[in-house]
Fold this protein.
Amino acid sequence: MSRNGVGPMVRRRRILKVGAGIGALQFTAPFIIQARGEQPVKIGFIDPITGSLSALAVSEVEGAKWTVEQMNKKGGILGRPVELLVEDSANDTGTGVQKAHKLIERDKVDVIMGDVNSGIAYAIMGVTSEKKVLHIVPGGHTDPITGKDCKWNTFRTCNTTAMDAAAVTGELVKKFGKKWFFITPDYAYGKTLQENFVKNLKKAGGTYEGDMLPIANTDFSATLIKAKAYKPDVLLNNMGGAAQLNCMKQFVQFGMAKEMALGGALYEIETLRSVPKEALTGWWVMEWWWNQPNVPAVKQFVDAISPALGGKKPSARHWFSYVSINAVRLAAEKAKSLEAVKMAHALSDLELPPEIALSPNKIRYRGGDHQLMSDLFVGQVQPAGPGGPDDLFKVESVVPGEQAAGSAEATGCKISWPA
């Protein structure tokens, strides 16, 4: 999880080579299966391979790499091989925008994907919209992407922050109380997430305090002292990646685990693997979970991808990439074209087949806002259970995406298509 666990460079050619520090993200086999010289379908993938969100980004790239390999074994997209071109945004907006221009203008990609960092994903939207390139956001959550600033060419696979907050707020209030303290990253994702939590909390008659901190913050002592003095029913740790990990470690060191409940939106498996045992608690949301015994296709997927992950179970981040890249294939097949406008029309309201959805309910990219209406898994974080070292979450309820999202009209999205 640590940013020190990720190599500083991602280089791409026909073979994607990643520094040894990334471990499971090392590729030694040819990335592209050449098919008698056909022009490849190029997918540009921008993510913060270095920086505080690197563990999440590495999982997304792992999922993308594996999905492309499997897809090429089955003929690629429209009979053409798929080439994945990975670029590191370094968790920096300017760098992410620069990489988007490079991929589109120099590398001539057909599709752009990214970024984990919502602010970067939002900025990249400006480039892809101007250049009329299909853009799928696998894992950037801030609401305007499929809300008031939605674009005809942009689709999102992960949830909105409104969906995550709506799914878990009721459980937190019911089980722990209405007095909350927020620790939230001060960027697009954190701001919209806290706004949605506060809206729901106020409806329940609750009160709150909290701090907004830099996305890569490492010292949480002053904020945790403030939280102890406030004596909340629930501490909501909305940080992500290495920052969330550091916050959880200091939370335990301060002896706060017995003083208040933990909860929030996302507490991802990449973080859960590294936190102290005392911090494996609270109610959270998983946007996809690897243990779904009543969905047969999930086990098949987990068994297939786990060897490529060194035996670990896939996370929601792997699933985001798996869905996003397969969405390109499905859209191209339906449109019989790689033209962005045709693929975007084809993807609108496209219901994912069960082997791609890997979810208990039917899910689709909603035509009104291009948001995937995926299921949300609400439950408790726990020390490793009988399912092995990654059995760190017990699903208590599944909330359908349509229920958590509300109407497309309520998001403020008004899609304007090119003439």
Summary: The longest strand covers residues 41-47.
